[in-house]
Structure formats: C-alpha cells, structure tokens
Amino acid sequence: MNNKNLKLGNLYIISTPIGNYNDISNRAIITLRKVNLILAEDTRKTGLLLKNFNIKNKLYPYYEYNEKKNAKFFLEKIKNGYNIGLVSDSGTPLISDPGYKIVQLCRQKYINIKIIPIPGPCAAILALSVSGLATDKFCYEGFLSKKTSKRIKRLNELKFENRTIIIYESKHRILKCLYDIENIFGKNRYIIFAKELTKKWENIYGNNISNLIKWIKLDINRLKGEIVLIIEGYNYKINKKISSKIIQTFLILKQELSIKKAINITSKIYSIKKNILYKFLINNKY
Ligand code: SAM
User: Fold this and answer.
1) Do 200 and 133 fall within a single domain?
2) Separation of alpha carbons 261 and 250, rounded Å
3) Atom number, ligand 1, closest to the C-alpha of residue 199
4) Do both 75 and 155 map to the same domain?
5) Same domain, 64 and 110
6) Whether 17 contacts 119, CB under 8 Å
C-alpha cells in the first residue's frame, strides 16, 4: 500500500479493543497490515496486539510528550506518499489519548491529506450505552484534574449541567473523586460505575452517589481496574424537595421585590445559577 503513484498518503486513525481482543474489527486488522508504518502510544503494548493477530509492521512511538515534534515529521512522510496508521493503547485514539496534534495539523495545513477513521470501541460510549441515563445529549469530561482545587472547581461548574456527564478516572483517585462529587452534586445524584468493560471482571453498577460509595467500601477490590463514571445530568424534577423550598422563597420575595431582585436573592441563598433558576421559573409559569 505504498502510494508511489499518488502524491499523498493517508492518515488512518485506528480504534483498537479496550481489553477484549475479540472486539477488534476486520478493517482495523486489514489497515494495520496494509499501512506503511504504525504510530503507537506504547509500541510494546501495540506490539502484543499485532503479534496476537499475526500482523507484521513497523511501529514508531507516538505519545503525548513527543506529539508536537513527531506530528510534523510524520506528516512529511504522508506528503511523500506514506500511508500511516495511528493507534493508542486502547480504544479510540484522541479520546483522552494522543493523536490530536497530527490530526489538527493535517486538517489545518495539509488539507488534501485524507484522514480516515477506522471505528472501534470507546469506553465512554460503551458505558453510556448501558447506563440507562439520557443518551440524546451528553458531555464528555475525560479525566478531571489531579489537583483537588482544580477538580472541585470543575465539578462546581458541572453541578447544574443537565446533560449526562461522562468522566474517566484512575483507580488511584476514584474514591476521592466520588467524595468530591457527593459533596458538590449532593448524595442523591444517580451515577453509573462501569469497570473493566469488555474484560473478565466487567462490573456495571448504578446507584445514587452515597450508596455507590457504600457499595465500593463493602469490597475495596471494586476499585481495581479501569473505570468510567456516567453521571445523571441535573434535573429539577428529581430535586423536588429543594425546588419546592426554592420556589417558596422566591414567591415570598416576589411579593415584596421585583422578579429580577427576587431571583437574584433566591439564587444567592441557595447557591444556584441565576439563569437556571430563571429558566425553571419561566418554564413552570411561576
Ligand atoms: N481512548 C480510550 C477510549 O477510547 O476509551 C481511553 C483511554 S484513557 C487513557 C484510559 C481511561 O479510559 C481509563 O482510565 C478508564 O477511565 C477508561 N477505560 C479504558 N478502558 C476501559 C475499560 N475496559 N473499562 C472501563 N474504563 C475503561
């Protein structure tokens, strides 16, 4: 597949399994065989995958810290007719994995190079698909910051997000992260804990956040492995108790003040975003 007659090669973004080798697609195998070289986040890990499928090809390291330099270097090769495949350690490249720089550069500067996606698993989408939470609108947050202050700030920004929220977390920080979610989102927010998807110890458990923490503490082994969290979006109907208190306060204030002032004060009392409160009151004709 060396494009000697063509001017440009292609860039293939190839998804690979997230734990279960049986999930690799035929197209992924064919493409991994046919490209001139493969860029891999970890050549050792991808080497094992290739060996398993008896694929012989050249592997070059392509990870976060060499991305900028390597993106330019390998794009020159594509310009010279090389077909290049890019994989990450698992799942879909670029989804909390390297690859962004080369795709971005290609789109912005080498617009004639074809970037071809070879589909396959992605832990976020898999977990979402079995969560039972709203899938029509969702937001992908990836990994929250390792720094507590930054993580808490971000969670506060997400508190009133009404789409389903997807979070990746490492087993080392997961409990801390769950406590932060409980403190900020409240005990009752429903959450799915999807662990070791597609692997032997796959476990998908859903409950409200405080019960989820209790469940984990019953068997600390539940923290082992790779985890995705799917969090229910903010929903006023579910928070009926709070909303009735909020409404009452608003209605009392409204008797004495303008609607704008009443909303301002109510939102301050309950640390709730003004525009969310406003929308709710309008939608419910208060
Ligand atoms: N690119 C990958 C994808 O498409 O899902 C994600 C790579 S990211 C570096 C690794 C994180 O993805 C893990 O920390 C975990 O949160 C999630 N993850 C990957 N594989 C998983 C699995 N089999 N089960 C649950 N979560 C997984």
Assistant:
1) yes
2) 10
3) 23
4) no
5) yes
6) no
Last residue within a domain, chosen from 89, 121, 153: 121
Give the predicted TM-score (pTM) of the model. Answer: 0.83
For the segment 203-238, what is each residue's pLDDT rounded down to a tens digit? 999 999 999 999 999 998 999 999 999 999 987 554
Cα separation, 266 vs 247, in Å, equals: 9
Contact 77, 71 (CB under 8 A): no
> Considering the domain boundaries, does residue 3 fall inside one?
no
| Amino acid identity for residue 19 in this structure | G
Please list the alpha-helical segments (H only) found in 133-226: 148-158, 174-185, 209-218
Which ligand 1 atom lies nearest to the CA of residue 202?
Answer: 24
Q: Give the residue numbers spanning the domain of 243.
A: 237-283
Binding site membership of 124 for ligand 1 (Cβ less than 6 Å) = yes
CB atoms closer than 10 angstroms to residue 284 = 10
Residues 6+ apart with CB under 8 A from 144: 150, 151, 154, 155, 167, 169, 177
Rounded CA-CA distance 88/43 in Å is 9
Residue 1, in any domain of the structure: no
What are 57's two structure tokens?
């090809």
